[in-house]
Amino acid sequence: MITFTKTRFKNFGSFGNSFTEIDLCKDRTTLVSGGNGNGKSFAFLDSITYGLFGKPFRKINIPQLVNSINEKNCLVEVEFNIGSDEYLIRRGIVPKVFEIHKNGQLVNQTAKAKDYQRYLEEHILKMNYKSFTQVVILGSSSFVPFMQLPAADRRAVIEDILDINVFSVMNQILKSRISTNKEELREYEYKIDVLKEKVDVIRRYIDAEKEKNKETITRKQSDIDKTKQVVLSLNESIESLSNQANKLLEETKSEQDIVKKLSKMETLKSQMNRNIKKIDDDLKFFDEIEDCPTCMQRVDKDSESIKTYVQSKADKADTIKKGIRDIEVLIEQETKTLTEIRNTLGKVSDIQLEVSEKNKQLFSANNHIKQLEQDINEIKNSKNQTDDEKKKLDDLQNQYDKLVLDKKHLVEDRHYYDIAGTILKDGGIKRKIIQHYLPIMNKLINKFLTSMDFFANFTLDEEFNETIKSRHRDTFSYMSFSEGEKLRIDLALLLAWREVARIKNSANTNILILDEVFDSSLDAVGTDEFLKLLQSIAGETHIFVISHKADQLIDKFDANVSFTKKNNFSKMVVN
After folding, report:
1. Which of 340, 425, 522, 531 is the most exposed place for a label (fewest CB within 10 A)?
2. Are 345 and 258 in contact (CB under 8 A)?
3. Within-domain flag for 567
């Protein structure tokens, strides 16, 4: 329950720069009187609604609330208790002020003014402007009776009174979460599709690389097999050529012997030629000489000794010449043999060159095989881009699995949101609660109508449409009644809402303000009956009645407060 204790204000409406303070919980019933324009409504209606909700009860523009003479420092303060907590709401214009104090401490003002107001209504007052004016104030000017409210506003008032607007708040939050859930699901589906495409691309790449590597290994292995056949053929050829060269080399082993032999024969031939030359020189000497060079005596060429000597020299020359011819035959034979041997060595050299070339080919082939085998091993045991792609694939797969799991949770959340939505919508739990309280509401409304001598059966349905039946069971609508009868219905509804609020302890307050109710359409009987009704509910509820009929009502109230105006400033007088 909200227990209002005080309201105070200055430079508010027609009130001046000094605070005017109203005690809201002093007397059970208070009559508020005064002439038109003296500030009654400003003091009791507009000050409280402006202080709590930032707007006056009557249709007055906010700037017009500031005193037109002082034009600044307009300030309204409302004090109330909820349980053991004491609250002070301070709101002003020129300068702009909005403060919420709890137990003497200023409540955090970091939020925007709109959010700060929402905090006040939702977390402290637990009711909004419409609900407040339906259970606290009944005015004759700008007040819109419950039965004249649109259907949505009727429902909002009842939800506040029954303290079930939390379900509407929850439903709004739920709608926001459903919207967020839809966006997140859409985003997750997009991310999942993108990741799936990336995973498929990398998998296709890895599969293609595997197939490519497989083909490369097959091709290189085939190349190895072919090269091994070449190696085998080269080894066979080299072996054959080597055997052939060795065999030819066997045939050339006598080369040095023949060379030595030829050298000796050439030497011998040279000696023999020198001997022949010497013999020829001797023979020439005896043929040409006439006198002895030593004794200078004539030489007898016909002497036997000379003839014998010359003949022996000639015979010796012939023998040597024959020997030379024999040696020349031998030299020719050995030279021929040496030529054949050297021809054979040429062939061996050619074979060795061919073997050397084939060894180079063999070396190259073996290196080629080693390189191919190394390539195959590198492909089989490679830590290359494929492995990087596999790592990427693993990372993407993990992300994909996480996204799928998160999406599953979002789908589950959506399922629960749908269930919660069914519960929180108007036809759900709120309908059940309203169905439970409707009989109580209708009973209270009819009780208060009967107390004011309005004998008709008034029934609200779940959509808060009325059915009114008279004693003769004729069916009426609210608008078909006279203004006095409609006022009785409005008063009965107001009191019924207050009673329901008291039962629910939701929009329950200690004050009731009636503005010119007795000055309008109530007849004398209705006035008496309503006064009795007010006296019956006065107790914890402090009732303030604003009226121009002070002379007729003054003895019916515990206290009397009047307002006067002097020099364009209003003043409150407690009688």
Report:
1. 340
2. no
3. yes
> What gap in Å lies between CA 321 and CA 382, rounded to an integer?
87
Would you mind telling me the total number of residues written for the chain in this entry?
A: 575
Domain residues for the domain of 113 are 2-153+504-574
Whether residue 84 is contained in a domain is answered as: yes
Say which residue the tokens 């790449």 belong to: 205
| Distance separating alpha carbons of residues 55 and 52, to the nearest angstrom | 8
**Quick one: how many helices (H) and strands (E) in the chain?**
13, 15
| Residues 46 and 14: beta-carbon distance below 8 Å | no
Instruction: Tell which residue, 85, 78, 1, has the closest CA to residue 509.
Output: 1
Q: What is the pLDDT of residues 444-500, one digit of tens each?
A: 999 888 887 788 889 998 888 888 887 665 778 888 888 778 878 888 887 888 788
Tokens 């038109």 locate to: 36
CB 515 within 8 A of CB 546: yes
Residue percentage of the chain with pLDDT more than 70: 92
Picking from 382, 407, 433, the residue at the C-terminal end of a domain is: 382
Measured CA to CA, the distance from residue 137 to residue 57 in angstroms comes to 9
Q: What is the pLDDT of residue 207?
A: 84
Count CB atoms within 10 A of the CB of residue 498: 22
Residue 48 and residue 78 in contact, taking contact as beta carbons nearer than 8 Å: yes
> What is the Cα–Cα distance from 100 to 91, expressed in whole angstroms?
9
- Tell which wins on pLDDT, 143 or 403: 403
- Residue that terminates a domain, selected from 364, 382, 400: 382
Q: Are 76 and 91 in contact (CB under 8 A)?
A: yes
